[in-house]
Amino acid sequence: MTDNVLEIDNLVVRLGRSDDGDKVIDGISLSVRPGETMCLVGESGSGKSVTSLATMGLLPKGALHATGGQIRLAGENVLAASERRLRQLRASQMAMIFQEPMTALNPVVPVGKQIDEVLRFHTDLGARERRRRILDMMQQVRLPEIERIFASYPHRLSGGQRQRIMIAMALVLEPKLLIADEPTTALDVTTQKQILTLIRDLQQAHGTAVLFITHDMGVVAEIADRVAVMRTGRLVETGPLDDVLRKPAMEYTRKLLSAVPSLVPRPPRENKALPVVLEANELGKVYRERSLFGRNREVVAAQDVTLTLHKGRTLGIVGESGSGKSTVARCIVRLIDPTSGGIRLAGREISDLSRRRLRPHRKRIQIIFQDPYRSLNPRVSIGESIAEGPINYGMPREQALEKARQLLELVHLPADAISRYPHQFSGGQRQRIAIARALALDPDVLVADEAVSALDVSVQAQVLELLDEIQTRLGIALLFITHDLRVAAQICDEVVVMEKGRVVEQGPAGDVLTHPKQAYTRQLLEAAPGRDWDFANFRPVGEAPPLPTNCPAAPGL
Description:
Involved in beta-(1-->2)glucan export. Transmembrane domains (TMD) form a pore in the inner membrane and the ATP-binding domain (NBD) is responsible for energy generation. The protein is about 35% helix and about 25% strand. It is of the alpha/beta class.
């Protein structure tokens, strides 16, 4: 018998159905004790999520299968369990929180009924008792207005509320093991902190073992008891949190830690008298909703937003989800029409132009979205996708394709990428393609809307370095929308902080992020995960570096 809730012993997972397919997981072993949080970290493609799916018995049939090792849940081998037994174990003994709750929740069923389905399948409780337990669980995960939310559909809830529903669904039967697969990646820092605190509190209350999968080393520093580092399907390093952060044994672990952007802003660039390329003056956006009974409801998404962007500079807009960051970006690009205020692009007012009159100006401002896979057409080759814009503006096709080749070289992708399709690239490569496509029209302004938030730290560092290189070479102005203050500190010259549609603070990045004047900005900074760690130097912030081992301590020390 063992005290471990989960034991993975020499697990091997292969591609396809045969036992000689390529190994996706190659002999990993790890364990999680009751009440312990084990963080499984690594880059995209390292095998973290495959490990979690194998544990839950959810490997896609025909695509992946386990060919060796054991996964023991409270002593029972999950890999040897029947499909019927696996259904019994899920939720009652082990449960999983997925990265994107909107895709995990049924959009046409109220969230309360979705939690109720777990209880109906696994218990003999009556409807009244089930409802009482669900409401109690919703209260434990700190949802407001639980009766209203019980009857709400997923699209009526915020991202943080949907994630809380997923946590309630996972913990309603008090399973022994909770697997959390990147549950906070797309959340802003304050919501992320709330979710992490919530998981920790519920874990302590119920004694749950947690296997937490993430690429965010800041999150690891906040919640982990032990850390396991994966690379290309193998376990590189494992150990207590303090050991891994202070004394990483492997070069790969050191590279991961060094890639974490610092909260200390980069040194300011020379403040030359550069021309203004973009201005927003008292910009506002109000959404009007009409109910079934004819009553109008107004939602103010942005109000009196004023900002200025100079050539070759980066202006960051930061804030929580719902603060109006993306609304402002979409108004500026004219993907949506502002309700009030003005937008001047290279000295020309564009806020009131019709779609037809706006067309000649669109090439001067381009946008990079968060998810390149959704913004690239899966049935169109990369070369055709990049060349589409120039062709639409009159460039001959062969010339446009040659330009596409040059842009792929600029973003450090191979020449043969031009004939391939989006699904043949990694997430980081697809984002490079999206950047190349945005540059195809030689814009004055590039708008990056959460363009690196879904990337792991090493790929994120590469994309940020690429944007900085492109900006230096081409002199493009960059409007950077992000909820990650670490990223803002490393790429922005000036920062605008938004709350509930309004600008609450703005100024040079070094001033705003180091000496914030507003309580809301201080709240954002205090919520940043791992803010107390200097990851690149493997020590807490402010701690002196260790003395060299061959250097005797000074007298009196």
